[in-house]
Amino acid sequence: MPFSLRLDPETEAKIRRLSAMTARSKSQVVREAVAQYAAEGPSKSGAEASAFDRLKPFIGTISTGGAHYSRDTHRKYRDAIRRKHRARRAR
């Protein structure tokens, strides 16, 4: 079935090169690319991926250099509020 679409010059050149390198028609190259894309599923394409799936590569990648920022957070917050309050009273 005939189907037409508009491609940017770079994409068209890639299809042309792949066609020449593999001795396949441009249509066959595009059919195989679409089949591969469809086989990967929507979660890999990002179209219907959850927020967790999209952020998964970044989760756990931050290093604090050994600092334990979550330890005794309540005390640290309370002390910060007290310092702020004392600074205001000293004016």
Question: Which descriptors apply to this entry?
Answer:
mainly alpha; rod-shaped
How does this model look, in words?
There is one protein chain. The chain has 91 residues and is mainly alpha-helical. It has a domain at 7-52. The protein is 60% helix and 0% strand. The chain has helices at 9-22, 26-40, 42-45, 51-55, 73-89. Helix 1 (9-22) packs across helix 2 (26-40). 0% of the residues are buried.
Q: Which series of helices and strands comes N to C?
A: HHHHH
Structural class comes to: mainly alpha
Characterize the main sheet. none
User: Hey, roughly how much beta strand do the residues contain?
Assistant: under 5%
Rg over C-alpha atoms, rounded to the nearest angstrom: 28 Å
Distance between the termini: 81 Å
- What shape does the CA trace take? rod-shaped
Query: What average pLDDT do the residues reach?
Result: 85
What's the total helix number?
Answer: 5
Secondary structure: number of strands: 0
Secondary structure: helix percent? 55-70%
Low confidence ranges: none
